[in-house]
Structure to design on (516 residues):
C-alpha cells in the first residue's frame, strides 16, 4: 500500500473513532433518555450538507499527568454551517464522551469557533449537554471555562449568542449560557443549577430533585433564566431556526427582510372594540399584537416569566420589530421587578442589533407594596427606564389605555425621547388614576357630601373628562397623533419607513453605568 493510501486509511479510521467516541451503548442510552446525540442535533439545526467540522481529530492531554485516556474530539463537535442559507458557527457537547465534561482541549475547540464567529461576524450557537468541569484535569478545566466566559462577554452585542440546554448544565458551566442572549431549555431532560441536589441536601438537609431545583419549567417561569422552553430536542432546534429568521448576523447589519405579502394598509376593524368601556375590565393584549403583525406571526420571548409584560419578535411590512407590551390580563399590566428586568434586557438586545422597538402601553403604574420595594423596584424599574432612554434604534409607542405616573414615563414616552408616540382615543394619561386623583383633589367635597360614593363617582367623571383624555397630551405635543385603533398597523409601518434613515449621536464616554 502506498503512502497516499495509508494516509487515507489512517484519516478514515481516526474520523470514525471520533464519530463513535462514546460507543454505541452510550449512544443508545442517550436515545433511551429521549435525547439526541451531538451530531444528530447539528444535523437538525444546520441546513443539509452545509456543516463543516473543525478539530475532528483533536484530543486532550489525558488528565493530570496524562494518566487518563484521551478521546478523539474530546467530547464536543464544533464547526460552521448555514441556517436558511445564512452562516452560523456551532458547538455541540457530546454527553456520550466522558459525560460531555469540559477540559482543556474541549474548551479550545469551543473557543476556536467563538473566535471565528467574532472575526467573521456571524451568530454562535451552543448546544450544551455536559456533566460540568472535567475533574481529572484540575485547574486546567477551570481555566478552560474562564476562556469561554471571556469570549462570551467580548462577543456580547457584536454577534447574537444562543444557548440550548439539552442535558445537565451545572456549577460554573451555567454562567456561559447566562451571558448569552437567549437560552433554550428542554422539558424533563435539561437542568441548570450552580449547586446540584446532592450538595443542597448536604448543606440544607433538603431533599429536592434536579427537575425541582433547576428544570426547564423552573427557569422558564420562576427564575427567568430560560427564554424558551420546548418539549423535546427536535422542537427546541426548530425554534432556534425560527428565532434566527428574525435576527441579523451581527451588530453592523439590519435584520433580514421577509415579505409575507400582508398589505401595509390593512385595516383591523375589530380593534375599535378591543378596549372595554369599563376601565376596570381586562382584555388580552395578544389580540392587538397578533392583529397588527404580518400574518399574525409573533415569537414571544420569556413567555412564561413575568407575564404582566409581553416581549417578542414580529414583522411589520417584512421588517423585524421588537415588541414590548403591557398585559392587562395579568396583574392589570402593572410593572413589577421581574417585568422591568425582563423588558429592560429585551430592549437592550434589540438596540444592540438594530431592531426597531414598538411599545404598546396599558400600564396602571408600578406594583405597590413592601415586597416589591424591598426587592428593589426602584433599581429594577430604573433598568427599564435606562434601557429605553439609551436605545438609538427607531422607537415607536402606542398608548392603548392606561398610562399613569412614572410607569407612563418609563414605557417609552415622548419625554424620554421616543421618536413617534401615538394614542388611541381610549388612552388615559395622568399622574394617577381617576379614583385616586379624585380622592386626593376633592377629599373635602367627598367627605362632606350626603352620599360620598355618588360624589366620588361624579368627581371621577369630571377628572377623567378634564385631565385624563389623550387630546390634552396631544395639544402639548406629547403625542404625535390620536389614531383610530383600526389604523394602528398602517401608522406603525409608515412611522418605521420614515425612521429608516434615523441617525444618532452618543456622548463621548467609555460606557454608561446602568443600575444593575
Amino acid at each position: 500500500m502506498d503512502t497516499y493510501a495509508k494516509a487515507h486509511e489512517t484519516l478514515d479510521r481516526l474520523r470514525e473513532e471520533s464519530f463513535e467516541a462514546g460507543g454505541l451503548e452510550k449512544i443508545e442510552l442517550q436515545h433511551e433518555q429521549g435525547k439526541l446525540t451531538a451530531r444528530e442535533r447539528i444535523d437538525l439545526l444546520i441546513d443539509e450538507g452545509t456543516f463543516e467540522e473543525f478539530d475532528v481529530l483533536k484530543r486532550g492531554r489525558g488528565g493530570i499527568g496524562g494518566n487518563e485516556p484521551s478521546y478523539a474530539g474530546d467530547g464536543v463537535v464544533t464547526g460552521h454551517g448555514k441556517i436558511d442559507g445564512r452562516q452560523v458557527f456551532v458547538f455541540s457537547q457530546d454527553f456520550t464522551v466522558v459525560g460531555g465534561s469540559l477540559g482543556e482541549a474541549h474548551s479550545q475547540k469551543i473557543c476556536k469557533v467563538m473566535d471565528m464567529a467574532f472575526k467573521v461576524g456571524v451568530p454562535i450557537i451552543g448546544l450544551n449537554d455536559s456533566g460540568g468541569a472535567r475533574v481529572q484535569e484540575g485547574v486546567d478545566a477551570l481555566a478552560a471555562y474562564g476562556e469561554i466566559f471571556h469570549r462570551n462577554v467580548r462577543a456580547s452585542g457584536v454577534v447574537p449568542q444562543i444557548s440550548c440546554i439539552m442535558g445537565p448544565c451545572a456549577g460554573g458551566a451555567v454562567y456561559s449560557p447566562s451571558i448569552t442572549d437567549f437560552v433554550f431549555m428542554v422539558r424533563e431532560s435539561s437542568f441548570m443549577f450552580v449547586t446540584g441536589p446532592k450538595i443542597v441536601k448536604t448543606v440544607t438537609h433538603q431533599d429536592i430533585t434536579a427537575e425541582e431545583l433547576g428544570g426547564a419549567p423552573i427557569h422558564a417561569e420562576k427564575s427567568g433564566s430560560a427564554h424558551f422552553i420546548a418539549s423535546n430536542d427536535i422542537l427546541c432546534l426548530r425554534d432556534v431556526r425560527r428565532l434566527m429568521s428574525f435576527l441579523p448576523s451581527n451588530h453592523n447589519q439590519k435584520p433580514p427582510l421577509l415579505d409575507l405579502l400582508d398589505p401595509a394598509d390593512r385595516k383591523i376593524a375589530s380593534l375599535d372594540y378591543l378596549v372595554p368601556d369599563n376601565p376596570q375590565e381586562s382584555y388580552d393584549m395578544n389580540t392587538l399584537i397578533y392583529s397588527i403583525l404580518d400574518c399574525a406571526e409573533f415569537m414571544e420571548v420569556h413567555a412564561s416569566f413575568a407575564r404582566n409584560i409581553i416581549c417578542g419578535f414580529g414583522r411589520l411590512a417584512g421588517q423585524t420589530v421588537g415588541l414590548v407590551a403591557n398585559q392587562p390580563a395579568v396583574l392589570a399590566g402593572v410593572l413589577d421587578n421581574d417585568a422591568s428586568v425582563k423588558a429592560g434586557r429585551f430592549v437592550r438586545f434589540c438596540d444592540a442589533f438594530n431592531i426597531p422597538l414598538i411599545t404598546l402601553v396599558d400600564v396602571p403604574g408600578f406594583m405597590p407594596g413592601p415586597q416589591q420595594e424591598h426587592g428593589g423596584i426602584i433599581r429594577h424599574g430604573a433598568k427599564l427606564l435606562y434601557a429605553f432612554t439609551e436605545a438609538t434604534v427607531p422607537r415607536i409607542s402606542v398608548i392603548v389605555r392606561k398610562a399613569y405616573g412614572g410607569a407612563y414615563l418609563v414605557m417609552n414616552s415622548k419625554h424620554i425621547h421616543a421618536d413617534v408616540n401615538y394614542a388611541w382615543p381610549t388612552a388615559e394619561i395622568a399622574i394617577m388614576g381617576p379614583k385616586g386623583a379624585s380622592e386626593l383633589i376633592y377629599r373635602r367635597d367627598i367627605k362632606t357630601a350626603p352620599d360620598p360614593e355618588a360624589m366620588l363617582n361624579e368627581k371621577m367623571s369630571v377628572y377623567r373628562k378634564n385631565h385624563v383624555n389623550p387630546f390634552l397630551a396631544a395639544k402639548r405635543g406629547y403625542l404625535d397623533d390620536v389614531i383610530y385603533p383600526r389604523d394602528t398597523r398602517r401608522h406603525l409601518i409608515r412611522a418605521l419607513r420614515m425612521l429608516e434613515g434615523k441617525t444618532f449621536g452618543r456622548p463621548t464616554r467609555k460606557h454608561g453605568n446602568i443600575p444593575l
Notes: The radius of gyration is 27 Å.
